[in-house]
Amino acid sequence: MKYYIIAGEASGDMHAANLMKAIKRNDASADFRVWGGDLMEAQGANLVKHYRDLAFMGFVEVLFNLRTILKNIAFCKKDLMEYAPDVLILVDYPGFNLRMAEFAREQGLRVVYYISPQVWAWKKSRVHKIKKTVDKMLVILPFEKDFYAKYDIEVDFVGHPLLDALQNEEKTDRHRFIKEHNLSDKPIIALLPGSRKQEVEKMLKQMLAMVARYPDHQFVVAGVGTLALSYYQGIIGNIGVKLLVDQTRQLLQHAEAALVTSGTATLETALMGVPEVVCYSGNRISYEIAKRIIQINYISLVNLIMDREVVRELIQHDLNAKNLDESLQLLLNDQPTKDRLKDDYKSLREKLGKQGASQRAADMISEFISQS
Description:
Largest sheet: 7 strands, parallel
Oligomer: single chain
Number of domains: 2
Structural class: alpha/beta
Strand order of the largest sheet: 3-2-1-4-5-6-7
Shape: globular
CATH class of the largest domain: Alpha Beta
Strand content: 15-25%
Number of helices: 18
């Protein structure tokens, strides 16, 4: 079978790569043509476009890059039809992927959406487009099934693929980890500033403001290979903070706490049991627009899934040195806070369902193709 998969950011690349691995167990002759990243390419895919050239976030940023986005859409339509896949699999990334779903349906292609767009947060009108253009929706958050049911759309909850990814993660010895990366014996505070260039600089500068306040800890930045080392070093400077590239989970295994930019990383950090503060600060105009149209109480997946504040969120003006310091102090020194987080993280894991999400999704896709 021929599979065309579109993932537009780092988390989508990870989940799509695990899905591909599961698909290959069911279909030994599977052929993949993809928009994604290094992890998907490592699964044997023909990589058409890398997500680093696709990831535009925020209303203003999208407007500035509109010409590039439209060119990508036109190219993708042409490439999709030339490849003529048995199924188009879309992974999150709604602004782009919903356009491709509409086009694919017009051309008579079968469309599977794996990892629903966050239509429950904003642009609920997209639900009607999904109903018209998507043949099968596979969701990974427990509350999404009930949300779609309100619109008379049947979806399948497969569980969260992060549970599988974390289960397969090799445990590393702390002493060896510290020696290998020339770290000190001080407790580690991990800094996860995101994966997009436009967010990393703003978030990392805020996070680094904590370094001088915690001389008994060492701060380590989780970088991504899609951004140049010189870019990170230009922000970090000479304050004695280490940078580890593409080793986020290994770092989190040994972290006492973490400052995390909003996104999938917030859930990943919680599932690894690391106390965290969720941080986000965006373009002022984009933020003001978003504040008026987004219909959710929280921005982190941890709090959204639990439907209450489990981890503290510092957003826009609340993201400042005073609030970061207060939040970190609680995570590091307040035992009731530590105990509560431990219990809440356990409940979070239970809500996400059983392991095996990627394989369940692959099985459902195989069944869908055979039946249709």
